[in-house]
Specification:
Blueprint lengths: L1 E5 L9 H9 L14 H14 L4 H9 L7 H11 L1 E9 H10 L4 E9 L5 E5 L5 H11 L3 E6 L5 H6 L2 E5 L3 H6 L5 E2 L2 H11 L5
The structure holds magnesium ion (MG).
């Protein structure tokens, strides 16, 4: 028996912060972990920018409500749900995710959270735990499940490497270069094929 653990942004939905940057016209919000590899520095920077521009959780949620899943994502999720369990393991925040989870058919989501004051200002962020993506695969292994893991970026690599089958989905070139042993998929059809081909190893 196996469970599919998948990243959210870049796999099932577009990057949330890039959409916030586009909607608000604030260029610095386009920076991601690809530009600033220290997540704490990146997030504190984002929260500073929100504060300087007087953007609240309500403004961000308004942008997120307008984001649609990537074409084919919903069909892929119903395909995998007929075969096995799906857990989305994401670095996003529970306060951001709800409209997207609704559109994806409410899969199980493990993610982080925000601290928000009475006026809706985001004052801090809280990681659920450190290296949470890898720890999900460890926990499932302890429950005697095999794990297939899918992700697109550096923050997914520890989850992919600790799973029984780690698969990259639409990764940028530098992630492919640094992880040339991991299979790369670019469409949901390719992803389905690779998962189907490994199922006999995951009994
Ligand atoms: Mg991602």
């Amino acid at each position: 028996m196996y469970i599919l653990c998948s990243d959210l942004e870049g796999v099932f939905v577009p990057e949330i912060w890039i959409n916030v940057a586009l909607a608000t016209g604030i260029e610095e919000l386009k920076l991601t972990t690809r530009d600033i590899n220290n997540y704490d520095v990146l997030m504190k920077g984002r929260l500073d920018i929100l504060r300087q521009n007087k953007l609240t959780i309500h403004d961000i949620q308004k942008v997120i409500k307008g984001i649609d899943p990537l074409p084919g994502a919903v069909d892929f999720i119903s395909w995998i749900k007929k075969r096995t369990g799906l857990i989305i393991v994401s670095d996003t925040f529970i306060e951001f995710a709800d409209p997207l989870m609704e559109k994806l058919g409410r899969p199980t989501l493990l993610c982080n959270s925000l601290t928000i004051d009475q006026d809706g200002n985001i004052t801090n962020y809280n990681l659920r735990q450190s290296d949470g993506k890898r720890k999900v695969t460890e926990a499932l292994h302890n429950l005697n499940y095999k794990v297939v893991a899918v992700g697109d970026s550096y923050n997914d690599i520890s989850m992919l490497r600790n799973s029984d089958a780690g698969i990259l989905f639409r990764p940028p070139e530098n992630v492919i270069k640094d992880n040339s042993d991991l299979p790369v998929t670019r469409t949901y059809e390719e992803l389905k094929e690779i998962i189907s081909s490994k199922e006999h190893l995951l009994q």
